[in-house]
Amino acid sequence: xxxxxxxxxxxxxxxxxxxxxxxxxxxxxEKNFAADPGNRLLWRANQRRLDVEALRDSILFVAGTLDxxxxxxxxKLTDGQNLKRTVYGFVSxxxxxxxxxxxxxxxxxxxSEGRISTDTPLQRLYFxxxxxxxxxxxxxAQRIRNEGGLDPENFVQKAYQxxxxxxxxxxxxxxxxxFLKSGSSVSAQYTxxxxxxxxxxxxx
Length: 204
What we know:
two-stranded antiparallel sheet, 10 helices, 2% strand
């Protein structure tokens, strides 16, 4: 095909991206998994973790605070007033932002053909201790309450719909309700757990 199209990579990319395989979802199928557990034959799309830019943007988006207007003067990502998309953030060549470095952002002083994907304890601790995550969790909890999630059941339902675009399973609903009933100010902790879940961190 590449030769027929006179070595046009643009045409090749179009052919790939319009294929049925490229459009596959990550949905699990017991029958297919039994025959090909490693997905060698590509019966579903492989899940990939969000890169740091998409992750930060997604957190701000679900919290309802993402500023979608074009960037102007680049601000540091640690600036609490910086709610624009991460692509507009300031990147220092001398001292890379800690969050970017933690989530495998490439060295800005050199060209890079791809990113190394790591999964470290420090990344998990970021979701426990980061001021950004805790602030976004509180804002997200308030957004859910403002949109009608006043009682525990509605809160869990709206949280799952907002973050995962699905209804919670019976066990997830039961556990969420149980946790939210355990105290008067635990809703932000609950949303923090959901934000740090694998389901939120993976690209489906």
